[in-house]
Amino acid sequence: MGTKVIRYGPNERLVIKNSPRQTNIYLSRKGYDKHDHIWIDKERGTIGARLDRSFKREPNSHTGCFLTTACVEYAGLPDNCAELETMRWFRDNFVRGLPEGDSLLTEYYAVAPLIVERIKSRPDAPEVFEQLLGSIRTAARLIESRQLPDALRICLTEFERLKEEYL
Hints:
167 residues; 20% strand
C-alpha cells in the first residue's frame, strides 16, 4: 500500500497513507503545526474528518480544482480557460461562503487528487474525463447564469458519484 505525497501550490501538500483497512489523508500547509485529517475506513465504508479551523487557504488561489484541471488538460485547454476560471470563481465566491463550505472544500482537496490518479490509471480515462467535463460545463453554464444552488447540486452529485466509484 504505502505513502504518497502530492504537492500543490507553493506551500500546501497532501499526504496519503494507504493500509489494507484504512486510507488516511492529511492536508498540511508550510508553517502550520496542525493539519486537516480525513480517513476512509474501508471495512466499514465510512469517512471521518478532523478539520483544523485555523487552517485557511489563500483566496483566489489557482490551486485546488483538481478534477476540473484534469478534464481541461485532457481536452487540451489552457489554465485560464472559461471552465477553470468559472469554477475557481464559484469555489472562492460561493462555496467557500457556505456554512459547510470549508468542510466541503477540505474533503474535496483531500480526495480529489486520489480520484484523478485512479481515473488516469484506467484504460477508459479519456471517456471518463469527457463525461466529467460535460458535467463541469453544465455547472459552469449554471454559474454564469447565476443559478448557483443548481450548479452546486450538480457538483456535489458528481463528486459523490466519483467518490463511490473511485475510493
